[in-house]
Amino acid sequence: MKPPSNQHDLRESWLRAGVNLLRPYFTDIGYPLPENIRVAIAFPSTGRKGKRLGECWHATSSEDSCFEIFIRADLSEPMDVLGVLMKELVHSALPDDAGHGKEFKTAANKAGLQPPWRTATPGVLLQRRLLEVATSLGPLPHARLHIDQSPLTAVAPIAAVALDRPKKQRTRWLKAECQADGCDYLVRVSARNVRDVGPPPCPKHGPMQVELPPEDDEPEMIVEKAL
Hints:
It is built from 5 helices and 10 strands; from the N terminus they run αβββααββαββαβββ. By secondary structure, it is of the alpha+beta class. A hairpin with a 3-residue loop joins strand 8 and strand 9.
């Protein structure tokens, strides 16, 4: 069967149509989606050097009470984009304090996602459903943005510092979280210690999970006078 021609000239239109096609599925599994969802291909709050592929901001964070979902601009394959979208839609169907805890794991599992839950990806059955959605939507009007490169200045073909690059912090303690169901044990640790020694253990469940920043964004342990 020949796939339909693309009726979407904007990424947001394609994504919005994808959300609407997935709404009945979420209702069937007992997690109806809110009506007020906006989706865009952009940079998550971790910036272009972070590892986060998607991000969902709860309606309580928005001036007009909309859920805001962002998918990284270096993703362009429809199945990859829809896979990330599924995970973020699960977040939108849950309370704002659910995080990646037990409630999220239950909902994500029902939706057909598979662990690790912080980077949950579609299982085989969900992949088939998303393939049907992708075929129905037609081509995604987006090309992969090479965010590993620096943007060029408007007046000369020389590399510029990325405008979204976060200011380096001089002290930074990362969260180490236990991944066991029902355990909320949490400690703070430096990225350097995690790289050199390893993540700290939970007293009951063993090694904890730490989301490390890129090495070139490691905080420098010095103090500078502000300019």
